[in-house]
Specification:
The chain is of the alpha/beta class. It contains ten helices and 14 strands. The chain has a six-stranded mixed beta sheet with strand order 8-7-6-9-11-10, sandwiched between helices. It has a five-stranded parallel beta sheet with strand order 2-1-12-13-14. Strands 3-4-5 form a three-stranded antiparallel beta sheet, covered by helices on one side.
């Protein structure tokens, strides 16, 4: 199979545990693009939190942000697809998050809102590149149009919340973890897998010709949707089980290793 497009997660996949893009990974991406193949990013981050990596994306190709809730061309800002949460869904997510005493993060109009602020929220803010706005009027935030919500808590608590949501679902949503401490909520039907299908259609590439690489559970849908699903060596066990190929870890140039094996 001649693979023509690679969609890569960022954290735990493209970059190392020290948040670095290695020369080996950069060189392999440059080479696949030089051969006329497409490279894009698929991330839970907002577009602002991707700015230092958008130069990697092939010209004219959209990237997947907010776990698929927004697909946007970084070269000209064209929004190819956008689907946020309904007001009722967002309201219930916030209510339950507050009930759990979790940190509730809300993305609306590319602005970062939170029900409280502490060192964890400030760390998340630094990664995304957006300042924190503490929620003082919940309905005003919801009226902006909510792209996605998150709960931030301990891994143990997040696991318990996932089980509770399975038993007591919220209508109209899709949820997944992006790290063991982060539970993310998007509109029903929104996922990285659906995002990958839309990017492939936009680029005129059959999804069987696409590779998706990732490490966490929010990557599962695109790992399963792609012609070749690649799990990093540091990936969650469920990602490894679903993948067609397991590469080296993100600290061992695993993405570059896979690119050299399947695309060059």
């Amino acid at each position: 199979m001649g693979y023509r497009l690679l969609a890569s997660d960022i954290d735990g996949t493209l970059i190392t545990s020290k948040q670095e893009l290695t020369p080996e990974t950069l060189a392999s991406i440059d080479e696949l693009k030089a051969q006329g193949k497409f490279f894009t990013l698929s991330t839970g981050r907002p577009i602002m939190g991707v700015s230092k990596y958008t130069h990697l994306v092939s010209p004219g190709v959209p990237l997947i942000s907010y776990n698929g809730a927004m697909i946007i061309r970084p070269d000209n800002g064209e929004i190819v697809f956008e689907r946020g949460l309904s007001a009722d869904s967002a309201r219930e997510i916030i209510r339950r998050g507050n009930e759990h005493d979790a940190i509730v993060i809300v993305w609306a109009k590319n602005r970062l809102f939170a029900n409280k602020t502490n060192e964890q929220v400030e760390g998340y803010s630094r990664i995304t590149g957006e300042k924190i706005n503490v929620i003082t009027d919940q309905e005003e935030v919801i009226s902006l149009g909510v792209t996605k919500c998150l709960w931030l808590d301990t891994a143990e608590n997040i696991s318990a919340y996932r089980n509770d949501l399975t038993a007591n679902p919220i209508a109209g949503i899709n949820f997944c973890t992006s790290t063991p401490q982060l539970l993310e909520f998007m509109c029903e039907g929104v996922s990285k897998g659906e995002g990958l299908r839309k990017v492939c259609e936009y680029c005129g590439v059959d999804i069987s010709e696409a590779i998706a690489a990732g490490d966490e559970l929010n990557d599962l849908s695109m790992i399963e949707a792609a012609g070749l699903g690649v799990a990093m060596g540091n990936a969650h066990a469920d990602i490894k089980a679903a993948a067609n190929y397991i590469t080296l870890t993100n600290d061992e140039n695993g993405l570059a290793d896979m690119i050299c094996k399947y695309m060059l």
